[in-house]
Amino acid sequence: MATAERQEVKAVARWVRMSPRKARLVTVPEARTVLAFTPRAAARELEKVLRSAVANAEANHNLVGDELVVSSAYVDEGPVMKRWRARARGRAARITKPTCHITVVLAQVEAAPEPAPPPPAEEETPKPKRKAAPRKKKEAAA
Asked: What backbone phi and psi angles, to 5 degrees, belong to 127?
């Protein structure tokens, strides 16, 4: 049996000046519409990467952008820039400026086969009910 290869398109934004944890808080189910109205700053960055992936698919692979779905989207940690801030008594405080790499992978929508009809439900025969055991009466303490 010949299997058709599932074509995937990828776009990566590297060294985004945002912590990976903040970027991971944005999910991508109905990507474009959800990201357009998400107030998080990471949504803008993710939307840019998504638009780039769709443009890559249309320009380089001759795919239709509306027929693509997000097969995976993940955020990896990038290098952390370390800076110092002067503090009292000649001391210094460390400032970390994290970066991240955002990756979005798109795939073509495959024609889903029609679901098979559910098997006919078998009629269940009612089970006979068991009678409760007779209770013993407590003897009065004399």
From this structure: -80, 145
Starting at the edge strand that comes first in sequence, how are the strands of the sheet with 68-86 ordered?
A: 8-16, 92-108, 68-86
Alpha carbon 35 to its chain's center:
13
pTM for this model (two decimals):
0.66
Distance in angstroms (rounded) separating the CA atoms of residues 120 and 54: 44
Residue 138 phi/psi, 5° resolution? -80, 135
pLDDT digits (tens, 9 = 90+) for 36-52: 888 888 888 888 898 89
Complete DSSP assignment for 53-81:
HHHHHHHHS---GGGEEEEEEEEEEEEEE
Domain ranges across the chain: 8-108
Q: How many helices (H) and strands (E) are present in the chain, helices listed first?
A: 3, 3
User: Class for domain 8-108, per CATH?
Assistant: alpha beta
pLDDT digits (tens, 9 = 90+) for 75-100: 999 999 999 999 999 999 999 999 99
